[in-house]
Design a protein that fits this description.
heterodimer; A: mainly beta; four-stranded antiparallel β-sheet; 0% helix; 51% strand; B: mainly beta; seven-stranded mixed β-sheet; globular
Chain lengths: 113, 109
């Protein structure tokens, strides 16, 4: 059974940093692109970044480029999102997604003073 | 970055048929955009319905189908059920970054 479990969300002050993790199981992790998506409460889905199977290629949404970094550890079957210079508007539920098929349950990040 | 546009809301009667569309500001949507469709019910996370224009998953109900229609990606629901009331999102491959549409709120009434 494919499973994705995000962790690492919480309360952070503006300007702070946080790293989200997504632990996966049930499939050959290194065979798949992985994606991070977020959703501000009450708003739509927003694609943030993705990374290929061996970690050599990644893409970002313009508004997070330079602040967010996606990475993966294929030995740990996990993908990460390092978020720096956090802003109030980064408050959202963050989901990881395998390619475009399986989703995690999401982790809530609140950026507030 | 490309802007992806969906109908903000649609209403359909139970048993009816409805088509949701997904347009790109960059021009006609083709299979090269790898259109995907997702459903999200209130209080729940998203679930995947369609990938690569028209391919269903094992869990996708048969009444859902994906296609290209008039330069847009399209999601058609035939024989709509009350449980299909949800928000629907499309996702397009913008040649590197991907972009979600703003979502369509489907009401079954």
């Amino acid at each position: 059974e494919v499973q994705l479990v995000e962790s690492g969300g919480g309360l952070v002050q503006p300007g702070g940093s946080l790293r989200l993790s997504c632990a996966t199981s049930g499939f050959t992790f290194s065979d798949f692109w992985m994606t991070w998506v977020r959703q501000v409460p009450g708003k739509g889905l927003e694609w943030l970044a993705n990374i290929n199977g061996d970690g050599s290629v990644n893409y970002y949404m313009d508004s997070v480029k330079g602040r967010f970094t996606i990475s993966r550890d294929n030995a740990k079957n996990s993908v990460y999102l390092q978020m720096n210079s956090l802003r109030v508007e980064d408050t959202a539920v963050y989901y990881c997604m395998r390619n475009v098929d399986y989703w995690g349950q999401g982790t809530l990040l609140t950026v507030s003073s | 970055q490309t802007v992806v546009t969906q109908e903000p809301s649609l209403t359909v009667s139970p048993g009816g048929t409805v088509t949701l569309t997904c347009a790109s500001s960059a021009g006609a949507v083709t299979s090269d955009y790898h259109p995907s469709w997702f459903q999200q019910k209130p209080g729940q996370g998203p679930t995947s319905l369609i990938h690569y224009t028209s391919n269903k998953y094992s869990w996708t109900p048969a009444r859902f189908s994906g296609s290209l229609l008039g330069g847009k990606a399209a999601l058609t629901l035939s024989g709509v059920q009350p449980e299909d009331e949800a928000e629907y999102y499309c996702l397009l491959d913008d040649g590197g970054p991907w972009v979600f549409g703003g979502g369509t709120k489907l009401t079954v009434l």
